[in-house]
Design brief:
Elements (H helix, E strand, L loop, with lengths): L1 H38 L1 E7 L2 E8 L6 E5 L10 H7 L4 E5 L19 H14 L5 E6 L2 H11 L4 E7 L13 H8 L3 H8 L4 H9 L10 H11 L4 H11 L1 H4 L2 H11 L3 E6 L7 H5 L9 E5 L6 H19 L2
Parallel strand pairs: 3-4, 3-5, 5-6, 6-7, 7-8
Antiparallel strand pairs: 1-2, 2-4
């Protein structure tokens, strides 16, 4: 009888301790998840009379990474990557004028060129008092970020380049309609260029070349298309299409920057991208032999299915190769 009583007491004590441990574990897990969720803040700041929307996460005391988006996207394309990096870095992802949640003045009110976008983003960086940063550049983020880097080499800790071209050999055949529009603007070439503003083209950019198309969230291209379809946005995009040739004209200047300043470079590339081909990724070695290159089995928007792998590559690169 005495033995049974002791066993009952011990059983109750064990169950009580187990429940307490389980409760604490669940609470800690929930708290951790809540912290990650709350880490991202959605902000707007006035830059040169424009409202610039941006996502910010992580502690400002940690090294900064600025994520510059491509066409036809916005800072939304970095939603997953931000969560993966926020524990280790101070992460900022802005929307350019005319994109996402930022101001979208008419072309009469704001000159939509890559030079001007880069100036606005440079002023945005200065407004946030960022003195040193790594730049993650994708697609349009390339010409925007490279202009900033060549003007302000002291600002750059490193470059993380994902499907952002800086070499002629990286330009895919699919870009020919845009090239024709740049070289000869008329009703026919504009009609061909306008195809890139349609929902079919937007979805195509996300799905084509993907390792697993079923992993591409429809929200991604649907949100991009929502912004593209806003009244007057087509005129903004056509202006930037026409200006794209100014980027190619600067390639040599960017190559000289790589040679002179030798910034640490991590290249992550969806190798099945038909806009900017894998040849464009490998070309970076010509002017920066120490560039670290990873070709992933993905397309233009490789982050949609490879953000976990990409975040690990970034963390390893910045922790081992960037001072």
């Amino acid at each position: 009888m005495k033995t049974k009583l002791i066993m009952s007491v011990l059983t109750i004590m064990f169950l009580t301790c187990f429940k307490s441990y389980a409760k604490n574990s669940v609470e800690k897990k929930v708290a951790s998840q809540t912290t990650v969720y709350k880490a991202v803040e959605y902000k707007t700041i006035l830059v040169d009379s424009l409202k610039i929307f941006y996502r910010e996460a992580g502690e400002r005391t940690k090294p900064t990474i600025i994520l510059l988006h491509g066409f036809p996207s916005s800072s939304h394309m970095y939603r997953n990557l931000i969560n993966e990096l926020a524990s280790n870095y101070h992460v900022i992802a802005p929307d350019y004028p005319g994109y996402g949640q930022s101001s979208a003045p008419t072309p009469q009110q704001y000159q939509y060129t890559f030079d001007n976008l880069s100036i606005t983003m440079e002023h945005f960086i200065d407004k946030l008092k960022i003195k040193k940063t790594s730049l993650y550049i994708q697609d349009y983020g390339g010409p925007v970020g490279m202009r900033i880097a060549t003007r302000r080499p002291e600002l750059i800790r490193s470059l993380i380049i994902q499907n952002a071209n800086a070499y002629i050999e990286g330009l895919g055949e699919i870009l020919k309609p845009l090239t024709a529009y740049i070289e000869n603007q008329n009703a026919e070439t504009e009609k061909a260029a306008r195809f890139f503003l349609t929902v079919d083209a937007t979805k195509w950019q996300y799905i084509t070349g993907a390792e697993s198309p079923e992993k591409i969230a429809p929200d991604s291209y649907s949100i991009d298309q929502y912004y593209l379809d806003r009244e007057g946005n087509d005129v903004i995009q056509l202006a930037l299409f026409r200006d794209y040739g100014s980027n190619i004209a600067l390639y040599e200047k960017w190559h000289q920057y790589f040679t002179k300043y030798k910034p640490p470079i991590l290249i992550i590339w969806g190798k099945n991208d038909q806009f900017f081909t894998a040849s464009g990724a490998n070309a970076y070695k010509k002017d920066n032999p120490n560039a670290e290159i990873h070709l992933l089995n993905g397309g233009h928007f490789a982050l949609e299915e490879h953000h976990l792998e990409i975040s690990k590559l970034i963390i390893n690169f910045l922790s081992t190769k960037v001072k």
